[in-house]
Design brief:
It comes from Sphingomonas changnyeongensis. The structure is a single chain. This protein is an alpha/beta fold. The protein has 7 helices and 12 strands. It has a single domain, classed as Spore Coat Polysaccharide Biosynthesis Protein SpsA, Chain A, CATH 3.90.550.10. It binds cytidine-5'-triphosphate and magnesium ion. The site of cytidine-5'-triphosphate has 22 residues, from strand 1 and helix 3. Cytidine-5'-triphosphate binds next to strand 1 and helix 3.
């Protein structure tokens, strides 16, 4: 079956700085949000995009998308979790499709093979996420001095897009009991005891968080098109 992609783009992009929230800033001439839309829609299994934007940012989003179609555009919330929940409710209201991809607008470049792997993993699990093993040494900082080392064996960096069966991830969001804000959706599913499958991620999916990340992504883009 086909998948509907939810792109969350309702953040403020404070760490990236710049005059405009990062999702509207250009990478090689195209706003991040348009890159993410193209990367998702290019995949034959992706049926359409539901876009979550900050309240009042609808016009800016339409301009950035420059004619790219969306199934729905809905206002997000104060946290990423709330924004995803709004997007999932919009998907549910569409009433078609039983699988979703949830994706950060701040990850503009999505290799097709990653979506292939997610779609395949979803045949046997309610959720699947792309991961990369941690390469650096991990340690706690102890007031300016090196603290305890955290064994990195088995530790994964979790990326998006994340793939879910719609009913399962919708139930996880609707049943969220509050407390510490989750930083992604897979952890919400796992909290319900549902196993989440791991597939190989890709460095190109690393999130644009800080100003220098734009340069890194432009280098990748240039390499991919040369
Ligand atoms: N996001 C969202 N709604 C929020 C917060 C975040 O839709 N209330 C989205 C962002 O737009 C981004 C993704 O979630 O695409 C990942 O979040 P992050 O990288 O933290 O983006 P920002 O919250 O915008 O950046 P920062 O934390 O630096 O302010
Ligand atoms: Mg944030």
């Amino acid at each position: 079956t086909d998948m509907i992609a939810v792109i969350v783009a309702a953040g403020r992009g404070e760490r990236a700085g710049g005059g405009l929230p990062k999702q509207y800033r250009a990478l090689a001439g195209l706003p991040l949000i348009a890159h993410a839309h193209d990367s998702l829609m290019r995949h034959p299994r992706v049926a359409g995009v539901v876009l979550v934007v900050a309240e009042g940012a609808e016009e800016m989003a339409r301009a950035a998308l420059d004619g790219r179609p969306v199934l729905a555009m809905v206002p997000g919330g104060a946290t990423r979790r709330a924004s995803v929940a709004a997007g999932l409710e919009a998907v549910a209201a569409l009433g078609h499709g039983d699988r979703v991809l949830i994706h950060d607008a701040a990850r503009p470049l999505i290799p097709r093979a990653v979506i292939d792997r997610l779609a395949a993993a979803l045949d046997d699990a309610a959720g699947a996420v792309p991961v990369l093993p941690v390469a650096d040494t991990l340690a706690r900082g102890d007031q300016g001095a090196l603290g305890d080392i955290v064994p990195r064996d088995g530790l994964q960096r979790v990326q998006t897009p994340q793939a879910f069966r719609l009913d399962a991830i919708l139930a996880a969001h609707r049943g969220w009991a509050g407390g510490e804000e989750p930083t992604d959706d897979a952890q919400m599913l796992r909290a319900l005891g549902e196993p989440v499958a791991l597939v190989a991620g890709d460095p190109v999916l690393d999130k644009i968080t800080h100003p220098a990340d734009f340069d890194r992504a432009e280098t990748w883009l240039a390499a991919a098109s040369s």
